[in-house]
Amino acid sequence: MPKESNKLSECQWLTVRYQPVSLFSLKRSDATSMAARTNLVPTPYSIKMALLKTLLESQGYQHSQDFDEWIKEEFNCIKALQVLIQPPERLIVNRNGYKLRYYNQQADKDYRKENDKEPPSIMPMQDGFVFREWVYCEGDLTICCGPTSRVRELEKLFSQINYFGKRGCFFQYLPLSEEETYTTEPSLQSDLMNGFTVQPMDDLGEKTTFERISPFSDETAKLGKDRIITLGMLPLKMISTSARYDFYQRCDHVE
Predict the structure, then answer these.
(1) Which of 44, 121, 126, 205 is most solvent-facing, going by the fewest CB within 10 Å?
(2) 3-state SS class at 163
(3) What DSSP string describes 223-246?
(4) What's the gap between Cα 6 and its chain centre?
(5) Are 17 and 176 in contact (CB under 8 A)?
(6) Residue 3 domain flag
(7) For residue 14, what is the enclosing H or E element?
(8) For residue 8, what is the DSSP state?
């Protein structure tokens, strides 16, 4: 992201808006592979990773000669962003269960132990039941991030993002007026006096590096250090619930 002029550096916060166009799902950090509850909205970590993905795809090829220096500076800029999120007006969390067959890791280990580490001729499989949640969103998702002096370039990255969470959870970028997009103060100020819902919010750690979160690096990210989890409060109120669904409404739209 090239540095901007002093004229643009006065705008320190960027606000962008998206319209959900498919169901949303983002497994919580404390979920297991078999039973995965979903976050209600994208987390700061998932938003920053989407920005990083878009940055690499759109500009990475231009920095083949100085990639390490370039990505270090860009990653630190993205990592330092404060991210505020306003959920859509209404959310319906649908709970689903699926029966499937998957790799039996324990049976594989037992076979290798009994046969001098020789792998089995056929991959051992087992029946299982998985739990997943999908969120239907009605209304727009608003993201406010900053402070930064590079809002123009940051906006270009956001405009190229078309999904958050799982692949296929599509969002349509919605252009805003310049007065709405660039502000000197955060545009999102949630009033939690009318109610809120707690959601674990994961984010990049202060000292993490690009190498630790890159899947092509030998370094590994550590939970609680490179990826931190805090409790976030969303301005959502649960209206009704059952064994199959939860219905949430944003507090400023509760009648």
Answers:
(1) 121
(2) strand
(3) BTTTEEEEEEEESEEEEEE-SSEE
(4) 31
(5) yes
(6) no
(7) strand 13-20
(8) G
* Residue corresponding to tokens 């990475």: 60
Does residue 2 form part of some domain? no
Closest CA to 134 of 5, 235, 36, 2: 36
In this structure, what token pair is assigned to residue 172?
């349509």
Per-residue model confidence as pLDDT tens for the chain (255 residues): 544 444 445 668 999 999 999 999 999 877 776 778 899 999 999 999 999 999 999 998 999 899 999 999 999 999 999 999 999 999 999 998 878 777 888 888 888 888 888 888 888 888 777 888 999 999 999 999 989 988 999 999 999 999 998 889 999 999 999 888 999 988 887 777 888 999 999 999 999 999 999 888 888 888 889 999 999 999 999 999 998 999 999 988 666
The phi and psi torsions of 152 (rounded to 5 degrees) equal -65, -50
Amino acid identity of residue 73, one-letter, is E
Nearest Cα to Cα of residue 143 among 174, 168, 117: 174
What tokens appear for 69 in the block? Answer: 């220096």
Structure tokens at 13: 């916060």
Domain span including residue 61:
8-253
Predicted structure pTM score: 0.85
CATH of the domain at 137: 3.30.70
210 phi, psi to nearest 5 deg: -60, -35
